[in-house]
Structure formats: C-alpha cells, structure tokens
Design a protein that fits this description.
The structure holds 2 protein chains of 2 kinds.
Chain A lengths: L5 H12 L8 H12 L4 H11 L3 H8 L13 E6 L2 H5 L2 H12 L12 E6 L11 E3 L2 E3 L4 H12 L40 H6 L1
Parallel strand pairs in A: 1-2
Antiparallel strand pairs in A: 1-3, 3-4
Helix pairs in contact in A: 2-3, 3-4
Chain B lengths: L18 H6 L4 H8 L2 H11 L11 H6 L9 E6 L9 H7 L1 H15 L3 E6 L4 H16 L15 E6 L9 H8 L24 E5 H5 L1 H7 L1 H6 L8 E8 L5 E6 L5 H6 L13 E5 L19 H6 L8 E6 L4 H15 L5 H18 L7 H12 L15 H24 L7 H8 L1
Helix pairs in contact in B: 2-6, 2-10, 3-6, 5-7, 14-15, 14-17, 15-16, 15-17, 16-17
Classes of the chains: A alpha+beta, B alpha/beta.
C-alpha cells in the first residue's frame, strides 16, 4: 500500500497540467490514489504532496475534510445507504438496521471476508427512487431488505461485474489532445481574451 | 396541460447524451448563433431573459454576470454541479442525460463574458455523471466545440471536468472555489459577496448552477425575449422540480413557472399523482431541506419565486418533499437537523456547535429521555444560530448552512409541538453518563 505507481504518476502529471495552479489537482489526485489502493495511504499522500509542491499536512488537511476519502481500508464493495429525508420517509432506517444484521458488522466496519463495508450517507440525489443506495458509487434504486440480501449474495458470488472495486469512480477519463487544448488560463496571464475584440469591431 | 420543454427535451432520447444524438436534436445551434453575435450581445440576451439562478438563491444570472470588474484578467467560469441538498434531484439528471447541453451553455457563457477557462465541478458521488461528462467532453474536443479555436473562430476555452469528494457545503460558491483550489471546502468570509470580483485564484469568477447554464443554449438560439415570455413575470422560463416522499408517482418534472401550483404538482395525475394510499397530507417541504415547510393551506400557491417568498418559504433547489399523515414529525425534524449537523464545515462556532447540540437534544427526545425544558432549549440554540428565528433568516455565520437547520425546527415546532410533547411526557430523565452507558 503505497506510493503511486508509474502509470498513475504519468496520469497525475497530465491532470496537474490542466490547471492554472497545481494544488487544484489535489482532490483528483487523492481519487487516483484511492483508485489504486481502495483507500488513501500516508505514503500516497506524501507522494501527492511532492507532486504538487505542498506539505503532506496540507494534503491530509484536504483529504480529511471529504467523506469519500477513506484513510483506512474499506470493503471491496462499500455500500452507502442513503438516509436523507426522502429515503428516510420511505423506510431507509429499516434498510440500515437490516444491513447491520445481515452483514454482521456495524457501520464503518468490514466483513471478515473483506468484501463489504457499509454506512448511512446523506442524500445522494435519487430522491424519487428511495430507499436507494450506492455500491462503490453505482446506484441501486428502491431497495428493501430482501433486495439488499439479494444484492449482497450476487456480489459475493462474483456477479454484477459492472461495479468496479472500491476507489474507481468514472471509468471514462477526460483526455484533451494537445493540439486541441486551449491550455490553462494562467493567473499571471493578464491579457484580454482576443474574442472580446469583436465588441469593439462591431461597436 | 403541456409544459414547454427547455432543459429536459432530451431526457427521453436514448442517445441524447452523445454528440450524435445531441446534434440530431438541434444541439450546438445556440453556440453557432452566439458566435454570429458579439459577446456583449450574447450577455444582453441573457439579461433580457431575466434568467434566475437555479441553484437555490434564485439570483438573476444576467445581473450576476454584470458584477465582473472591468479589465481584470483572466476570468474563470466554475460550474456548480455539487448537488447535495436533501430532496434535490435535477442537476444529476441534466449532467447524465444531456451533458452536451451543459457544455454548450458553458462555452457560450465563456464567450459572452471573456472567461478564459471553465471548471465543471461534478459531485464526487456521481460516478455515472462524471463518465457522461468526460465522454461528452472528449467528443466535443474532437469535433471542435470546445478547446482551441472553437468552430474555427478565435474563441479558445478549455472546459475541465473536476469532481468533488463528498461535502454538501461545497455547494456554497466560495466553498466550491476553495475546494477547486485543493483546500478544505469552507466558505470564505464576505464581503466580497460575489466571487465575480474575487474568486478562483483571487481572480474574477462566475459561479453558476448546472440547471442555470443548461438554459443558456435555448435562450441564445431562441432569444431572451422568447424566454421571458414563458413563465411568470419575475420567474421566467421553466424549472425542474423533483417531487419525492409519500406520493404515488414520485418524479422529476419540468414545469413552467407561475402556471402550475403545488397542488397540481403533488396531486395532479400527470405529475406526482397524489398522496400514497389515499392518506392525508401532513406537510411538505417546498424547496429543499433548508426551506421552511408548507402545509395544506399552501397547496394553491403558484410555483413562482415571489409568491413562495411572500408566503414565508422558498423554491430553493426545486426539491418538494411530501409527508403524509403517518409521518413521525419529530423523527423527520431530527433527520433534517442531523444532515446540517453532519455537513457543518466547522468554521463558524454558532453552526458547528449549535447544529451539533440541536441534533443531540432531538436524539435524546426520540430516545425517550427528553426533558420538559428541551423544547425551549432547542429554540434558544436556534436563536443563537439565527437571531429572532425569522424568515428570511438572519445569520451569525458566514454562510446560510447553520440557519438552514433552524427551518425544519421552527416549522415543525410551530405546527406540531404536541408531537414533541408526546415524546417528552412521562418519560424517564437520565443523566448524560447514563445515556452513554445505555448506548454502549
């Protein structure tokens, strides 16, 4: 568990190059570290600090603010059960209680086989589909207790391969071909965008 | 009745999210039209449209744009796609189902205002939305709708997909900027009240919501006046409402402002279809968790900003949460307060401490250990966060998150105090130590 590997270092440099200031890449790079290891290790944070010319403490400061970054291992499948108001009204508390009984662990703990962890989370914007949950940030709508058990059983048996292991968010990345890039708008570049010239030409 | 479809026109089209599907349905015509106009003319059209911001505060977008200081460069556009207000569910669909419309809105806005780079901030938990935007951007770059020399003109703007990592407060525009700079997402001290003067990297920055920008292509293609003719005088165009909770047909509906009432939307067959199981309505939240609640007597209000403001609440984020007469109001209130408590960033003491104590007191009441003086204590804490407990709320904090926790309490205590009393009556008062022991 570890530093960023070669491929991810290359990707990290690409991401950094899109921003006017390096530190803006901090959250995307923390996601990259989490994608590699499933959680964010101290070593990865040190790596990120040196890539961005900030201190490891600054990286930790940002990392610890955001719920999605896990600074300890979680299950391969992190199940986030929404307990926002809309899901609450439709029985989310019952699903949460059931998850605890069914998985045999409390919120934030990992099952013995390392496969699952779960927690109650705030509204995940699927309010008409409640009670809903996300498995590694992929939605499952209108879940009752038996649906929950079915899901867990299918994941245990290796089904549902469309859900990547914890840490992977978008499987599609933005790629800007260098010849198509306008380039980052550097803070020091104080020149007026040329297309605004049109205002004067017309006026 | 049929509603004009401005922002949701591609939601039912299977390939509406691809460039091919977008172009086949009139996509990027607004951008082409904009490039035939001067940047100031484009800005003028948006002013004529009187487009209100669709994030929650409802501030006119054209006027916000006008706050940019003269001749300070570079300027940035930051798109607020950090939708997290409980009950709110529209930006995610706009992002997933029509990403090109949003991208087109961004590019037009950059053209109009001379913004040199755009950051499209999508909420971290929306993995599918991030994939859709990334794929759309890759297509748009390849075909010259974004990037260097857009459509062969001198307009050159990169649109960068950025994503968050789970924090409601990042929806506050200065916190969003902090987050985009790689920091903890804490709101900045005001003034300046608008990042238009000092924003990202200390430079002029426009922050607009996803739904706001998704309206821009239509406005430019059809003209600001045509847009202003739709809807109500002070709330032009359409709005996307998500109706959730105890209704027969929860759903997301694009509705013309002013012509539809809450009753239409909640009870109408073409919308949410009435309260489940034939139950009675107990209360509904008209505009997201921060909004004061409405009741039966508010059902005939039109969906329009000034009418709802005057009635003492807000349309906010377009989230309508319906509670039927089986709802445990104390638990619903606790649920909303817990949200604000968990999401408080910790910067301002009244919010950090106040929301936390409110949550704990409500938890104690639900656990059967409430005290007779608890309800007054709750109101006292509320008063410390938001003096006078009025609407619109006064603030002792940098941002409105703290005062937002007061809304559900003020609403539920005023109307349903007897339900709180019922929890408190005849129960056993325990010491905090005993309570901790009971929990463990």
């Amino acid at each position: 568990m570890s530093k960023l590997n070669e491929d991810n270092l290359r990707l990290a440099r690409q991401i950094i190059s899109m921003y006017p200031q390096k530190k803006s890449a901090l959250i995307p790079l923390l996601h990259l570290a989490q994608e590699q290891d499933g959680w964010v290790s101290n070593e990865a944070m040190k790596d990120i600090a040196s890539l961005l010319d900030v201190t490891p403490a600054e990286v930790l400061g940002t990392c610890s603010f955001y719920e999605m970054f896990k600074r300890h291992p979680v299950g391969e499948y992190q199940i986030n059960i929404c307990h926002g108001i809309s899901c609450h009204l439709l029985g989310a508390d019952g699903v949460l209680e059931h998850a605890e009984d069914s998985l045999g662990v409390k919120q934030g703990e990992i099952t013995k086989d390392g496969k699952f962890s779960f927690e109650g989370v705030e509204c995940i914007a699927a309010c008409t589909e409640g009670p809903c949950l996300q498995i590694n940030y992929r939605y499952v709508n209108k879940v009752n207790s038996s649906d929950f058990d079915d899901l867990v059983a299918r994941l245990r048996s290796g089904e549902k391969p469309d859900i990547p292991l914890h840490g992977t968010l978008a499987k599609v990345r933005q790629r800007i071909p260098s010849e198509k890039s306008a380039g980052p708008a550097l803070v020091e570049s104080s020149s007026r965008p040329i297309w605004l010239q049109r205002n004067e030409d017309e006026g | 009745m049929s509603n004009p479809s401005i922002t949701t026109s591609r939601w039912e089209i299977t390939d509406g999210h691809t460039l091919e599907g977008y172009l086949a349905t009139g996509g990027y015509q607004g951008l082409r039209r904009a490039l035939e106009m001067t940047p100031s003319e484009v800005h003028e059209e948006v002013k004529k449209a009187s487009l209100l911001g669709r994030g929650g505060a409802g501030f006119p977008a054209g006027i916000k744009w006008g706050f940019l200081p003269q001749e300070v460069w570079p300027r940035y556009l930051v798109v607020n796609g950090d939708e997290s207000e409980p009950g709110t569910y529209k930006d995610r669909l706009l992002i997933e189902r029509d990403p090109h419309q949003l991208i087109e809105g961004c590019v037009i806005t950059c053209y109009a205002l001379g913004l040199s780079q755009c950051f499209l901030y999508v909420r971290g938990e929306m993995a599918h939305g991030q994939e859709r935007v990334a794929a759309a951007l890759n297509e748009a770059y390849a075909e010259g709708y974004v990037g260097k020399n857009i459509l062969g003109t001198e307009l050159s703007v990169d649109v960068i997909l950025h994503w968050g990592a789970g924090a409601y407060i990042v929806g506050e525009e200065t916190a969003l900027i902090e987050s985009l700079e790689g920091n903890r997402g804490m709101p900045r001290l005001k003034p300046p009240y608008f990042p238009a003067s000092i924003g990202l990297y200390g430079k002029p920055t426009i922050v607009n919501n996803v739904e706001t920008l998704s309206n821009i292509p239509w406005i430019i293609e059809n003209g600001g006046e045509a847009f202003a003719k739709i809807g109500a005088e002070q709330s032009t165009g359409t709005r996307i409402f998500a109706v959730s909770g105890h209704v027969n047909n929860p759903g997301v509906f694009e509705v013309e402002f002013g012509t539809t009432t809450f009753r239409d939307l909640i009870m109408g067959d073409e919308y949410a279809g009435g309260i489940r199981n034939g139950n009675a309505l107990k209360a509904f939240i008209p505009g997201g968790a921060s909004a004061p609640w409405f009741f039966e007597e508010h059902l005939d209000l039109p969906l329009e900003k000034s009418a709802v403001d005057n009635a003492g609440s807000m349309l906010g984020s377009g989230a309508i949460v319906v509670m039927d007469d089986t709802t445990d109001i104390v638990k619903a209130c606790h649920n909303l307060v817990r949200f604000f408590s968990r999401e408080s960033c910790g910067k301002c003491t009244p919010c950090r401490e106040g929301t936390n104590w409110l949550e704990k007191i409500l938890e104690r009441i639900i656990a059967g250990h409430g005290r007779k003086e608890d309800l007054d204590l709750i109101l006292d804490v509320c008063d410390n966060i938001s003096p006078g407990i009025t609407w619109p709320p006064k603030q002792t904090t940098i941002c409105p998150l703290g005062p937002s926790a007061v809304s559900p309490i003020a609403s539920s205590l005023e109307r349903f105090r007897s339900e709180f009393d019922a929890y408190i009556e005849d129960n056993q008062v325990v010491t905090p130590v005993e309570l901790m022991e009971e929990r463990s």
